[in-house]
Structures are given as structure tokens and as C-alpha cells.
Design a protein that fits this description.
The chain has 162 residues and is an alpha+beta fold. Helices cover 14% and strands 33% of the residues. It comes from Mycobacterium yunnanensis.
Length: 162
């Protein structure tokens, strides 16, 4: 994987931007293939702070059916993609996991993942290493899990279906 030079992805390209920092690594951005003068803004990637980028990248790659597309030489940033969406796992040396829903360290970020079958999706999440969260505010619509770094994420039948 090596250097974060340009890599062709569908529908855009992956590139490293910004100077590396000892705490955050390098920012990973996927630029869309739309013309530069397009007025639309596009999310390039979602970055997730964690203590072990490789472990968290493997977890989300298994959960979402993505593959590794880039990694910094020092392993502080690992990017995964399905060709449309990109997640960048970024090492934080003094990482503190979320304590949500308890006060203190908020949830930091979370994914709401649309699924057609909550029970089947729950079984898959648990099989790849998720933990069921104690706090389940509406388990008939949302099931809350924790990833290996402690971030909550939800599987839901609420809203658009895959």
C-alpha cells in the first residue's frame, strides 16, 4: 500500500493531502471525478480516530465489504473503500474511547447503517467482532453496537432500505 500517492478508485481517486502530524497522521481525501468547476460538494472520506488503525480498518472492511486501498508507511492511517465510500482509520496516541451514553467522552462519531433484516445484520456484526451496546433506546428500529475502538454504530430498518 505504501505512499498515499494518487490511486485510481471508482468513482474518484485517493490522495494524501496536508502535512503529517505526530497525532493525526495524514488526511485522506477521495476526490470525485466530476469536473473541478462543479458547484456540488462531495464527501471525500470519513476519518475515524482510533488506537489501532489496522484492526479497525479490518473490522469495518469485514462489516461493510470494503477493501484496503491505502496505508501510510508508518501505519498511522489505513483507508478502506468500496469504490464509492472511503473510511480512513487514523491513529491517535492518547485515544480515549467514547463513554456514550454516559457523560464524559461523547460518542465522537457513529454510523447509522440501513439494513433490511435487523436480526441477520446483528448476527453479521457480532460475527466480525462488534459488541452489543448496553444502551438500546429502540431495539425494534435501531440496534446499537460498539466497534473494537468503542465507537457506537447503529443498524437500523428506519429510513431508506438497501
Amino acid at each position: 500500500m505504501g505512499d498515499l500517492g494518487p490511486r485510481t478508485l471508482r468513482p474518484g481517486r485517493l490522495r494524501g493531502v496536508g502535512a503529517p502530524s505526530p497525532r493525526r497522521g495524514r488526511v485522506v481525501v477521495v476526490t470525485p471525478t466530476t469536473p473541478q468547476d462543479s458547484p456540488a460538494l462531495h464527501i471525500g472520506s470519513v476519518s475515524v480516530d482510533c488506537p489501532d488503525p489496522g484492526q479497525l480498518a479490518d473490522f469495518y472492511a469485514d462489516l461493510f465489504g470494503m477493501t484496503r486501498v491505502a496505508e501510510t508507511p508508518d501505519g498511522r492511517v489505513v483507508a478502506i473503500s468500496d469504490g464509492t465510500h472511503t473510511l480512513a482509520m487514523m491513529k491517535v496516541d492518547d485515544y480515549v474511547p467514547p463513554t456514550w451514553p454516559e457523560p464524559g467522552q461523547g460518542q465522537q462519531m457513529h454510523f447509522d447503517v440501513s439494513v433490511a433484516d435487523l436480526d441477520a445484520a446483528e448476527a453479521r456484526a457480532l460475527a466480525v467482532g462488534a459488541r452489543l451496546a448496553r444502551h438500546q433506546p429502540a431495539p425494534e428500529l435501531w440496534r446499537v453496537f460498539l466497534d473494537p475502538a468503542g465507537h457506537p454504530f447503529c443498524l437500523t430498518t428506519f429510513g431508506p432500505q438497501p
